[in-house]
Structures are given as structure tokens and as C-alpha cells.
Amino acid sequence: MLFTGPLLVQRYRAGADQLPAEVAAVKALAATYRERLTDVSWFMRLLNEAIARQANAEDNVKGRFWEGRFRSQALLDEAAILSAMTYVYLNPIRAGMAETPETSAHTSVAERLAALPGDAEQGRATSSEDGPINAPDAPAVRVPAWCETLPLQPLMPFDATARLPTAIPFSFEDYLELVETTGRCQRPDKRGRIDGHVPKLLDRLGIDPEAFIAASTTLLTRFGSAVGTPQRLTACCAERQARHLRGMRMARKVFQRRAA
Question: Which domain of life, per UniProt (predicted)?
């Protein structure tokens, strides 16, 4: 329970004797509570507050939660989705916690690779043995009991044919090729270089390969509240009635193929 309620409500729920005026006050509060139950904004505020309090307790910190840890960015097109997915999945490799996508703990790439026919047991063993579960000095995270009853959400499928109504609009093979190529190019001895073969997805979406690789470690930080091609950022500006959006220069550099 997030809130215990005023003393009048607590006494009412406990079945204590109350004066008519006190009962009337409880009924007025109940009407307010019913109205809040239909208010999505109120629900989100309480949900965010509960998550923030739990996370602050786990990290042993105080203060504003969302401002210090997270920011949201609208992904306006396929190029933005692809860039964000690659950036996130390569975080363990950049941090030195894994050497390859299949050994990255707690990523959907490792989970998808483990589920491939013939490699399932090997993938699961590699992911659990080589990938760190928690940082050595991090306190154990206590998961509320009610969280354990929630069903696991299945991973969204990849589908390059557009036949499925809801899917990631690429083939998994092409996406894995891009992740592996980008990961290799982020190594200190090969940073920023693509040797020979250009990943199919970059070519299909008109993304400049060299610019994408060079900016892959900091790409999302170069944008503000939206990520996308120059055309989509311009359209987003018009929709928001804003003069400009941060990241236009990076969008022109990465998402606009230079003429040969």
C-alpha cells in the first residue's frame, strides 16, 4: 500500500465508532479517491514516486530520481530506432563487461542468440558464466514479492517483410551483423574503421557508415529530446512549434549519406 490515508480513514477501515460528521468526511475523501482512480496522470505520478523511492533506497541516495538518472528521447524513424538499439546493446562491450554480444549479460541480443536452435544451451551458459550479474561492490537488490508474480514479456520479433503488425522492422541477421561490426570497430586498435564490408542495414537506411561508427559511442548524447533524420527532426520542430532541436548537425552527419 502506497498510502495509509488520514486518521479518519484508518479508523473507518478498522471499524471504529465514528461520529456522523466523521463518517461524512470519510465519504467525501472516498469520492476524491474514486475520481483519482480514473485519472491516468495521477496514476503515473504515484507510480513514478514509488519507483523513485525504491531506487533511491537501493542506491542509498536522496533527491530527484528521474532528472539525475534518466531522460527520454523520441525515436522518430527506423534510423533512430536502429541507432538506439545498437548503442544500448553495445554498452556492456564499451564498459569492458563483455567482449561479444552473446556474452553480454542481461541484453536481449544475448537472449535471442541463446534461443537460436542448436546454440541454446551454449548461449545460456556463456551469458551466465562470463557476464557479471551484479557489480562486486553493489548491494543486493531486493525485488518486491509482487514483482515475482508478473509474467515475463516476450521479446518483440524482428520482421523485415512488414507482415507482422507489431515488429522491429529489420531482420535479426542483418541487425546482428551491424552490432558485431560496430562492436569490433569500437576496439581501441580498430576504432572508427570499417574494413571492407559495410553492414546491409546502414546501406538500406542511407546511413553514412564511417560517420555512424565514429559517433557510435556517443551518438544518443548528441541529440536532445528527439532522434532522427534531418527531415524527421524538421517535421518534429514544426509539430512542436519549436525553432530548433538539438542534434540537427549530427543527424546531417550520420543519417544523410554523403555523395560519392
Answer: Bacteria
